[in-house]
Amino acid sequence: MERANFNEILDVFETGTELNLGIFPNTNIVKYGYSFINNEFILYLHGAERIDTIKNYVKTNKSVNFNKYSSKGKMVSGDGNVTILETKEEKINGLKYIKKQQTKMGNEYNINENEIDDLLVFKISVENIYKIL
Question: 13 or 110: whose pLDDT is higher?
Answer without folding.
Answer: 13
